[in-house]
Design a protein that fits this description.
About 45% of the residues lie in helices and about 15% in strands. It contains 8 helices and 5 strands. Helix 1 packs across helix 7 and helix 7 packs across helix 8.
């Protein structure tokens, strides 16, 4: 929620806020779209929607979450100027019957999605799981692979999003949040 709040607080030099929409999928043996991009009505509404979420458990089929997320981006994304970021929170342990996760990630990345993989348990720090999470994360993994127990994790994530914003600005002739991202970057990523 911290990242959502902080991104909502970004303002353009014109005084307008950066437009941000957030979706949330919960996954296990099935995927539950807790909120789609079309259901976005601001951070307070998002918080109210996710607070009562009940953990569904019963195996980790990460591939289904990634394919559903990719479809959601394709169906609901607002266009070429959008930065597509996915934060995959996982323990890194997939169910033995989980379909090919790497094909799903490759497809999403080909659609322009940047993946943060965030380990959420001690199991995520085991060497085999770290290796899998590293393959799922966008490159370089030093920017996109983290554990929720890492110090200043939200600052690190926001910093990478700002860098992506600046890079995209250089690659496009017009991008709405470029000034805000430049100002934030120059200020050392100290966000409200």
């Amino acid at each position: 929620m911290d990242v959502v709040d902080r991104l909502q607080g970004l303002r353009l030099q014109t005084g307008r806020r950066m437009s941000t929409r957030v979706a949330l999928l919960q996954y296990s043996s099935h995927v539950i779209p807790e909120q789609t991009f079309g259901q976005w009505w601001g951070a307070q509404n998002f918080r109210a929607r996710i607070t009562p979420i009940v953990y569904i458990g019963h195996g980790t089929y990460t591939t289904y979450a990634i394919t559903n997320m990719t479809k959601m981006y394709l169906d609901e994304s607002s266009g070429a100027g959008s930065i597509r970021v996915a934060m995959l929170l996982t323990d890194g342990v997939s169910h033995p019957r989980n379909p090919d996760i790497f094909a799903a990630v490759a497809d999403a990345k080909n659609q322009g999605v940047r993946f943060f993989t965030l380990g959420i348990t001690r199991a995520a720090n085991e060497p085999a799981n770290v290796a899998q999470l590293r393959l799922l994360a966008s490159s370089p993994a030093s920017r996109y692979l983290h554990n929720l127990q890492d110090a200043d994790i939200m600052d690190k994530v926001i910093h990478v999003i700002v860098k992506v914003c600046l890079r995209q600005r250089r690659e496009r002739t017009y991008w709405p949040c470029a000034r805000a991202c430049r100002r934030i970057s120059q200020a050392g990523v100290s966000l409200p």
